[in-house]
Amino acid sequence: MADTARVAILADALDYSEGSAKMFITNLLKFLVQNKPRGLEIIIIRGKKSSGWEKGDVIEIAIPRPSKAFRGGYLASAPCYLRKQVLMYFRDRRIIDIIRRMDVDLVHIPNLGGAQAPPIAYLYLNNIIVTLHGVSPLVLPPSIHYRGMSILKYLLVKYDVLKWKAFFRRKVRHIITVSYSAKRNISKYLKIPPERITVIYNGVDNRIFRPIEKEKARSYISKKYGIAHKFILHVSAYQPKKNVENIIRAFYILKKKYHADVKLVIVGKQPDRLRKMAQNLGLTGEIIFTGFVPTQDLPFFYSAALFFVFPSLHESSGLPLIEAMTTGCPVITSTAPACMETVGDAGIVVDPKNYQKLAEAIWTLICDSSLREKLSHKSLERAKIFSWDIVAKKYIDLYFKLVNQL
């Protein structure tokens, strides 16, 4: 049985992504390095080199990506996109040459989402593993997933599906995904045998996401963001599947039918039409759109809120649910399979399409402080399985298992 493993991790998301993608790869590398046993060598390949990663058996290699040239509408952006892909192909071939020279056991591509396939150049390798975060374009109805999406992005999804079915379904050695719900969807839609898919849940850094004393959290939010009133919370970067429109509709019922004395705080980038929707419903001042909030401030929002509302139509994992539970914030979520899998019995679930039922659930939780307290305790207990230390150790165990199968 091998007691050494040399793993190359493609970490472009550190430099060229934002939001959850960057957070995931940052935490994956951070906790892999912290929990790394003797015998595991990690080679980080990214676009820009930084200090701090290299030590012992951790090597960082920077290979710059071609500059972004993707502007000017469909007619202009399509040839620019094709040009960039050609340049990326030759960059990928450079990476492959380095991987071969360094005698790497496994090549881990950790940031594939939305049915994304590996770059076509990686057909030259036989030791690829990937973290595929989900296949939502294949699960959701086109009217939901593709709403507001450009023609080019739509075609790219179709191209990725073709790559999976024609090449990478057989070429990729193993797939890691973030829930059993996502595993079922990947197996179903990409025709990949379940035994080649391992579930490792998403993690949160519990040194950042932790319970904060409620009055301290409320004071911080009041001083920095001017939110002094009690509130319920939603956090997301807008996508149609996040179902924010139904949160607003439910909140309207909450105000008109129940006269609830609470605000709704929506954290994250949201389109202007949602603000107009709130205005048209007479909810100006009752719904607070904060825009982007730094990660370090999110635990204060979760801890200050009465509870968290996340009635998504589809998720592969539902990272904001994990963040909320790790702070002890009670949650209301949806009957979407991954959402129910994530919260277990630690949250209230409702049909995400029925905003009247959502309003009733919100009102029930507003009125029942003992239920909020009960859900808070259950959330903290449930959140223990989503620790990044646990997640990193599962990745390490899988690396060694796969190397032993070579």
CATH fold-level label of the largest domain: Rossmann fold
Would you report the number of β strands? 13
Kindly, what is the distance between the CA atoms of the first and last residues, rounded to a whole number of angstroms? 11 Å
Write down the secondary-structure element order.
EHHEEHEEHHHEHEHEHEHEHEHEHEHHH
The helix fraction, in percent, is 40-55%
Mean pLDDT across the residues is: 92
Strand order of the largest sheet: 3-2-1-4-5-6-7
- The CATH homologous superfamily of the largest domain is named Glycogen Phosphorylase B
Radius of gyration: 22 Å
CATH architecture of the largest domain: 3-Layer(aba) Sandwich
Report the biggest beta sheet as strand number plus sense, adding barrel if it closes.
Answer: 7 strands, parallel
Q: What is the multimeric organization of the chains shown? A: single chain
Number of continuous helical runs: 16
Number of domains: 2
Strand content: 15-25%
Structure description:
Helix 2 packs across helix 16 and helix 12 crosses helix 15. The protein has 406 residues and is of the alpha/beta class. The protein has two domains: 217 residues, Glycogen Phosphorylase B (Rossmann fold), CATH 3.40.50; 172 residues, Glycogen Phosphorylase B (Rossmann fold, 3-Layer(aba) Sandwich). It has a seven-stranded parallel sheet with strand order 3-2-1-4-5-6-7. A three-stranded parallel sheet has the order 8-9-10, sandwiched between helices. Strands 11-12-13 form a three-stranded parallel sheet, sandwiched between helices. 47% of the residues lie in helices and 16% in strands. It starts with a strand and ends with a helix.
